[in-house]
Design a protein that fits this description.
This protein is α/β, with parallel strands linked by helices. The protein folds into three domains: about 90 residues, Rossmann fold (3-Layer(aba) Sandwich); about 200 residues, 3-Layer(aba) Sandwich (UDP-N-acetylmuramoyl-L-alanine:D-glutamate ligase); about 140 residues, Mur ligase, C-terminal domain (Protein-Tyrosine Phosphatase, Chain A, Alpha-Beta Complex). Strands 8-7-9-6-10-11-12-13-14-15 form a ten-stranded mixed sheet, with helices on both faces. A six-stranded mixed sheet has the order 16-17-21-18-19-20, sandwiched between helices. α6 packs across α8, α6 packs across α9 and α10 runs parallel beside α12. It is globular and about 65 Å long. The model has no long low-confidence stretch (mean pLDDT about 90).
Length: about 450
Amino acid sequence: MLTDKKYLYFIGIGGIGMSAIARYFKSEGYDVSGYDKTTSSITDQLFDEGINVQFEDDWSLIDGMYMDNPKHTLIIYTPAIPSDNHLFIKFKSEGFDMVKRAQILGFITQDTVNLSIAGTHGKTTTSSIVASIFMQSEVSFSAFLGGISANLNSNYYKQEGLGRLHTITEADEFDRSFMHLRPNFVIITSTDADHLDIYKDKNDIENSYVQFSQLVAEREFVFFAKNAANRIIGCSYSATDPTADYYATNLKKSARGTYFDLMKHGDEVLMTNLYISLPGMHNLENAIGAILVTLKSGMNWESIKKGLASFKGIKRRFEYIIERDNFIFIDDYAHHPSELKAIINSIQNLYPNQHITAIFQPHLYSRTQDFMGEFAQVLEKVDRLILLPIYAAREKAVDGVSSDVLLQKIDIEHKICLEKSEVIPYLKEHKIEILLTIGAGDIDQLVQPIADNYGQ
């Protein structure tokens, strides 16, 4: 696939998965550039690292070295790219070699010891904890992450070390992309329904996860969250359920993390006084999955314990932006009803006597339509709600689907739909105790202005 290739052009390079692969190839000495629809903190970082990004869907702006060397050029694209993208259409009509992101990720990791983390939610946190554990070892590894690790300040990392190269990859269920991987070890964090524009129903997506898990022949190398991942055959784990193969006990929780002991079914103690520096039961469960897969892949307990304790989290995953006695501001990437439920429950458990104001930006018209009732139910758990317009991403608007329609289904007193430009003036008019920004679109562009408003 890469024979004689020198130039790599990424369509959708600003995506979290795409940018990690672009960084990999840049570090390997390839000429790398690409296109994305909008600027972002990721594209800013790519510029700083010497990777050029264009933001106009204009063939004439592409560097001549790609056009003059089609035999030596490879086009890598995200399946989320719109079908009417001019660059995609032109590269295809001109006969350039083109591959999906998942295909190239499978190719560059196929001869490694691959640890793949899949799930509707939780996979970015889990894979980042796995990377943190590997960082405390002397093992050679590369990590391709679906978020910006605070430890690495990147979504790609490579460590030169001992032994055969290990790779840590997020296994993306969208477009069944994870079937291009060849994992040696697998974690499945959840199999909730999502991407119903791709899958027919919940049963269809569960079948896909089952097929993915079967890429690993040894069942003892497959780990799944007992009460969140259905129909998987392997080793189960849970933050609280003692009927799982592995579970946590003796929990001591705080706003910054959890101390716990790890048990094997039958009351066998595997390790005591472990600490994960993230709050919330969902993060504890992610940590258990990371412990088990790294232990099975050969990590020692010292590396595991240090990796957990030193983990600093991920940008936009329960990220404390401001933490004061009278005001707390947390930002999170949650965009599925299950994820919203987890983050809101965690905040309520940590701060039971304080009011939560949430700013939510729905992501995709299809997801909003498919889970309208579930979104309404979980968003009723906050005290004040601000809904931003739906972030369309790759989609076109759907008649009858909007934030206004969603708002009408939410039964709380204090609720409103606002444009992003209206948020800060609105916040200034109200006393806020806990502020939560949530969503997977461009709501992150509001985070710093809001923080500046509160005198970060």
